[in-house]
Design a protein that fits this description.
By secondary structure, this protein is an alpha+beta fold. It is built from ten helices and eleven strands. The protein binds flavin-adenine dinucleotide (FAD).
């Protein structure tokens, strides 16, 4: 199969015309990491070259390795084993190993944890490319937001404990929010978080519809303040998959069969709190969900791109009335509409990702300058 990055003129066009240099400058904090870490660029040109190289190798992996396995992955699905563990489809396991080897499991994580320190925009491009190859795999590849949330809000100790393993692709994560009676309305989450006499935290209760709930590291929204209803009674916790985390069932879905959607029972599971008490839903989960929304948008563009290729190939090879049906105006119109919708969706996705990068980058710059005592006037 072709390289899913280099064969896509529209991604290449946007890559060339969006001001990636400005994003690189913000992410690289004026290129101060050059010389400190392997691969840290010394200027914007070098950074853009790095983005291009990583996307090209991911495009190759997606076309040559991931896409040819996608159909088998979907037919095979996941298995819930008798001991409560979950086995991924063979192709998912193999692709995850390849992605780890390609060092692309810490796209936006800082260099100091082994991440690539890339802008969100480039990560969106990567998600789109992987989704075109296998939308199920994207659900696991796209859960890098778990590590980003730990990086943004957890203590230094927790970061040290988890982020190296995320960046190395040794662990995968899950965002564990939804419950049987708390879907859109996350303020009504009931799963209990409580402390023992020594102040250690534990989780007890049920979560449902959790993508990759069988993953190694779980970010769990739970009620830490039993007397407080609503969002202000909720905190965010991190725990490891272990003997007190029971996967009770896997959902039987219409599609993305390679992505396990789990029901989980936490039976007094030891955990650690992320950041401050009562800030679990806002701002921590709100931030996680904002990232997830962009990820799902990128997945949707990737799926649409894949569908377009199937439609176009069919229309080019199916003959009626002595011509390939792509030459019939009614069919051609449909193909053109698909292409236009995809390009419009992609432009919107990339612009949204770029704005997120600018917001993160400038906020970080302001924080750093405030910490070093520089005035606001110098922030620009
Ligand atoms: C494949 C899959 C993967 C998932 N992965 C995860 C995961 O990784 N982690 C996780 O925590 N959760 C996950 N979820 C759960 C998902 O976040 C919830 O399904 C979602 O929040 C909606 O909740 P619900 O299904 O209970 O629907 P409900 O909240 O019961 O909503 C039912 C219907 O009412 C509508 N509705 C609800 N409230 C309003 C309102 N105020 N105004 C207008 N309409 C409204 C909804 O749009 C929907 O059509 C996943 C779900 C699926 C299907």
């Amino acid at each position: 199969m072709p390289n899913f990055y280099t064969d896509n003129d529209d991604i290449r066009f946007l890559f060339k015309h969006i001001d990636l240099g400005a994003l690189a400058k913000l992410c690289e904090e004026d290129f101060k990491f050059a010389g400190q870490f392997d691969y840290a660029p010394g200027d914007a040109g070098e950074a853009i070259q790095n983005y291009d190289m990583v996307l090209e190798s991911l495009g190759q992996l997606s076309g040559d390795f991931i896409a040819p396995r996608a159909e088998d992955v979907d037919n095979e699905g996941n298995a819930l084993n008798e001991d409560g563990t979950v086995s991924y489809a063979k192709g998912i396991q193999e692709s995850l190993e390849k992605l780890a080897k390609a060092e692309v499991m810490g796209f936006t994580l800082p260099y100091r944890f082994g991440g690539l320190n890339f802008p969100n925009l480039v990560y969106s491009m990567a998600i789109e490319i992987v989704s075109r190859a296998d939308a199920s795999l994207m659900n696991i590849f796209g859960l890098q937001g778990i590590a980003e949330t730990i990086n943004a809000f957890a203590s230094e100790e927790i970061k040290e404990q988890y982020l190296y393993d995320f960046a190395a692709g040794k662990v995968t994560g899950a965002m564990v929010l939804t419950e049987p009676d708390a879907g859109s309305d996350l303020q009504s989450v009931k799963l209990r978080a409580f402390t023992d006499d020594n102040g250690n935290w534990f989780l007890h209760g049920v979560k449902r519809f959790i993508t990759n709930g069988c993953g190694d590291v779980l970010l769990v929204l739970a009620r830490s303040e039993p007397d407080r209803a609503g969002g202000l009674g909720l905190s965010l916790f991190v725990c490891d998959r272990g003997p007190t985390v029971h996967i009770r069932r896997l959902e039987d879905k219409l599609g993305i069969h390679g992505s396990p959607t789990c029901e989980i029972f936490f039976d007094n599971t030891p955990c650690q709190i992320i950041g401050e008490r009562r800030r679990g839903l806002a701002p921590y989960v709100a931030s996680l969900m904002n990232g997830a929304r962009i990820g799902i948008a990128a997945q949707s563009v990737g799926i649409a791109e894949a569908a377009f290729h199937v439609a176009r190939d069919y229309a080019a090879t199916r003959y009626q009335f002595g011509v390939a049906i792509e030459r019939l105006p009614a069919v051609r119109d449909m193909l053109m509409d698909m292409k236009i919708d995809i390009e419009a969706g992609r432009a919107l996705l990339y612009e949204a990702s770029r704005v997120v990068d600018m917001e993160f980058g400038y906020n970080k710059r302001i924080r750093i300058q405030s910490a070093s005592g520089q005035g606001r006037g110098q922030a620009a």
